[in-house]
Model the fold of this input.
Amino acid sequence: MTDASPYTVKGATGDWEVVIGLEVHAQITSQAKLFSGASTAFGSEPNANVSLVDAAMPGMLPTLNAECVRQAVRTGMALGAQINRRSQFDRKNYFYADLPQGYQISQLYHPIVGEGVLEIEPADAAPKQIGIERIHIEQDAGKLIHDQHPTQSYVDLNRSGVALMEIVSKPDMTSPEEAGAYVKKLRSILRYVGSCDGNMDQGSMRADVNVSVRRPGEGLGTRTETKNVNSVRFVMAAIEHEARRQVALIEEGGTVVQETRLFDPDRGVTRSMRSKEDAHDYRYFPDPDLLPLELSEEFLSECKASLPELPDAKRARYVAAGVPVYNAAVITADVETARWFEALVAASPKSFEAIAKPASNWLISDLFGALNRLGRDIADSPVSPRQGGELLSLVADGTLSGSLAKQVFEIMLETGEDAGAIVEARGLKQTSDTGAIEAVVAGIMAANADKVADYRGGKDKLFGFFVGQTMKAMGGKANPGVVNDVLKTMLG
Done:
């Protein structure tokens, strides 16, 4: 990769740089909420998953869910971040209709995870390291529903008290592309670790987007925060619009106000929501019902040992085994695809190094093409990794040619049958019988004596014509290597 031109916003009075920081809220994968035993299942009936703790009934005390702590620590370790052996929960006080307690339990001053780094690879640009400032654990709020009644809003507390990791970046990003690459990479790692499902469309991962603009080389400008952006595309669009809005405002003599904004995906614009509060406005203080959280060495060792092979390490291993760099990047970008590929390779009797490259080509070209055509994803593939491995093995041992393999694959997609059964039932085995191929070639040469003469007279490109005619005459079942050898001998 090479360095692309720095991203700037072209204003009426010159160029402006953009400074971006992201606060990603990732719902922690757990069966129960952060401080109660209520279910975290998505899609339940409104207010079906609400305990007395979540509803803030008098006398209810929080009990910390250890699994949520474990997942946050594992995430920090995957990001190479500092794990704080001692952290503390605070109360962040504010009133909102979907926050029954009147405060949110969070970690402002003593988070469970400190600084780390995430390396991104924006399109057509060199890799770049983005600083992670901290990861802290906090409760999610409920949800207000405004479209069920003409004059009233409803409150659904199913999400109230669900555990979140707030992953706060440093303001190290300078373009929408970098921010998009950051969210994609972070989501990939969370899904590998299993600490968050990354389903942005369901709200289990969403980003608060902080944007400011400045003249090149100047200090930081006043930032705005666009809340709860729930797709990579919308994150990039919100940055693009907000940067241009701020530049236009400043150039017209106005002043950027530190505020919270919302992104309207239908119009592609941001709009003001409220003035941005400072930390003192929330009256933070340590939660009196929760002791400081202290992590043992044994607990940290268990968390470290439980981590899987992460995408960067997996990609490097694939490339070392001969997988093309592009293929390795595509396969490792999503944990489900990587698992499918691992199962595909494991289904072949050949070694990983022997089968990895052709398996990656088949996965990205043939299987992905078929899934796109069928409107399915890899988790819903009509062909299993075991079946795909058998198909690749039949190609590797010479039973099937490339063209025959494509025919067999199409039948597999339609019927669900195994490749070996299809080959036997339909007589689709490739033939390497030299005598049979020679007989066919002799007939083609006799029928095309003029082209034989032209070929022998120096028109080498006609060789492809004879290959095509031979393969056609043998129904695509002839071994291409044997066909080439026979033709070279018989044509002279």
